[in-house]
Amino acid sequence: MTEIVNEQMEKEKHIRGLGAMILSRTLDKKIITAQRQGRVGFYTPTMGQEAAQVGLSMALDKDDLIYEYYRDVPMMLHRGVPIEIILNQVFGNRDDLAKGRQMPSHLVARDYNFMSVPSPVATNLPLAVGTAYAKVYRKEKGIVVASFGDGSTSTPDFHAAMNMAAVFNLPILFFCENNGWAISTPVEKQTKTEIWKKADAYGMVGMKADGNNLVEMYKTAQQAVEHVRSGKGPVLLEARCYRMGPHSTSDDPTKYQTDIVLDGSEKDPIVVSQNALKAIGLVNDQLIEKVRAESQRIVNEKFDQQEKIPPPDPETIFQDVYAKETWILREEREEIL
Ligand SMILES: Cc1ncc(C[n+]2csc(CCOP(=O)(O)OP(=O)(O)O)c2C)c(N)n1
Ligand SMILES: [Mg+2]
């Protein structure tokens, strides 16, 4: 009986995972089109990284805390962050949790255990290590995940964070989403070795995952998460995936990239994952079509709704600066408002 229940739960988990991937892809396309129409300022698409993120997310618990980076929308959607929170930040509108002060794509959703995204790459890693240390000190449940791209492994912060996490045996998973590019720099020009192997130098476990296939990604992520959760120390998990879009809406990859993976092509992680799930009898074309149509409906509806929300009031720029307003701020405020 328990086995049947578990099997059913795993089945639903995979279907929900694929659903989050499709929802994220639909949202990505909508935001990119809107940016081209001048309705959104800037965005960093996440197309091609959906299976890697959702596969990991499926292996995580509610108590786990994520120091995400700017491409982690699929993971956020899968962990239940409302689409409104993401769109409010993209628009920088009045309801944005960061009050419109962050660059678009620098998300935060504290109630869902997603910390804010700092712009200098890999600076989230030392913060994540500090949080993992604090979790142990306070005897709190859950592990910490810090995500980043392949290019981010060339920063001092990556190395400092890895070293400290290993020395203190902290409950942290370093999640490298290797999409092959750091803007226009290919990964071959970034490192002479495979990224997951760098774990060895710090005395921690390194793992490589097929971040293009939801089923495979989930299996490897489960092993990595289990290792960290059971107190055996940190893990560096490298997920191989593709950056199917530009680095950002301000980038034109056709100037430097010849092998762009196209939406719906055989290397597209949604196609790969759908085929993998079909092969084990978990989904069929009819269900996929239903999920697609529903995702499109939700995205269109939420987009139009959140776009109507006005920008933050000008006076909010004076908030959160000091606990008590200084005379300089008061004079500035009176001058502007
Ligand atoms: C410390 C630092 N250097 C440079 C930049 C400019 N920059 C922004 S994103 C990026 C590429 C990062 O590539 P990667 O880590 O592979 O992530 P991806 O964008 O491919 O997902 C660079 C160089 C930055 N934000 N911070
Ligand atoms: Mg990259």
Mean pLDDT: 96
SS element count, helices: 11
Widest beta sheet: strand line-up: 1-2-3-7-6
Question: In angstroms, what separates the terminal alpha carbons?
Answer: 67 Å
Low-confidence stretches: none
CATH topology heading: Rossmann fold
How would the blueprint of this fold be written?
Elements (H helix, E strand, L loop, with lengths): L1 H35 L13 H8 L7 E3 L5 H6 L4 H9 L32 H14 L6 E6 L6 H12 L4 E7 L2 E2 L2 E2 L12 H4 L2 E6 L3 H16 L5 E6 L28 H11 L5 H23 L19 H10 L1
Parallel strand pairs: 1-2, 2-3, 3-7, 6-7
Antiparallel strand pairs: 4-5
Helix pairs in contact: 1-2, 1-9, 1-10, 2-8, 4-10, 5-6
The structure holds thiamine diphosphate and magnesium ion.
Question: In short, what is this structure?
Answer:
The chain is an alpha/beta fold and 337 residues long.
Which features characterize this protein?
alpha/beta, Rossmann fold, 11 helices, 7 strands, binds thiamine diphosphate, binds magnesium ion
Could you walk me through the main structural features you see in this protein, from its secondary elements to its overall organization?
- By secondary structure, this protein is α/β, with parallel strands linked by helices.
- The chain has one domain (11-336): Rossmann fold, CATH 3.40.50.970.
- The chain has eleven helices and seven strands.
- Strands 1-2-3-7-6 form a five-stranded parallel beta sheet, sandwiched between helices.
- Helix 4 (83-91) crosses helix 10.
- Bound molecules: thiamine diphosphate (TPP) and magnesium ion (MG).
- Magnesium ion (MG) is lined by residues 149-151, 179, 181-182.
- Thiamine diphosphate is lined by residues 71, 119-121, 148-152, 155, 179, 181-183, 243, 247.
